[in-house]
Design goal:
Length: 348
Amino acid sequence: MNKDSFDLYDREKALISEGSTLLESQDLKTLKPFAQRLFDGFVSLFNENQNLLRHSDRQEQRLVKLNQNLKAQTQELELKRQTQELLSQQLAKYLPPQIMSALLSGTYQSKVATQRKKLTVFFSDIRDFTATSDLLQPEALTEYLNEYFSEMTEIAMAHGATIDKYIGDAMMVFFGDPESNGHQEDARACVLMAMAMQTRMKELAVRWKNKGFENPFVIRIGINTGYCNVGNFGSDQRLSYTIIGGEVNLTQRLESHSDPGGILMSYETYCYVQDLVEVEERQPVKMKGIARDVKTFAVLGPKQIQTPKSVALNHQAGVNIDLDVSTLTPSERQQLAEQLRAVANQIS
């Protein structure tokens, strides 16, 4: 070993070596000072150990206290988190989920501010609601109305709509703010949502009739696409996130001209969804403040994909295929298509 290397027990080894030498010499004059040094060293070591023990006890007590404080703080933070989560859930019932999420993430400022954006607006209400409500007990009316709004809201949220407000028996939602997938996709999502709502209303009507609701709710829907003012309206003390403008009023007019159980949309919306739905052009709507008549289109249902009755293929390599697919079921057509694809893969 290198003589300059450090040995943790150098002092102890030297002491042992010295003691061995003195014991062999049996010289009392030198043994007594050595014994005194050992005793003094022992006393010093004992005192050091006691000090270390006391210090260790104090540190342990501090750690216990810190752990208790940390546990209390953790419990307090968890309680605050649960309280905030509960508050967020409660606030989410009064605010559009998109706005709520933006507020919590800090990406949305709660101040008076509006902007012009192209939106697709949806408006619905219940046909003859006043007359229908007069035939129901208040408790039953409340039950059916809450169920209606719950079902429609669930569909709206599933399609990414921003729920603006409930006005009595009416419901207004829109697409395009604060989140947008583009003007066309927003319009298509709105029309698909409206069709899903009318389908659900037919299912609810059956259930309600079985519960004794003789004349179940039937809704009319209007949809329009155009530029609106959207944002926070009001004051610094109280804000309302909503949309206003002529296009909103037009949507309400379209709803009032819609068939019960139907969907009526403007030409602007129709342009975005004409490949998606079957429509029937209706009488134009005259709107105060708009010089032109507004073209309207009633949604009849999703556009049906036309399946060819026969398929023919003639190739110079001697391949001749003539199929009558009109007699095949959808599953048989799918199976045949897979077989033809397999043959095509072998050729390529």
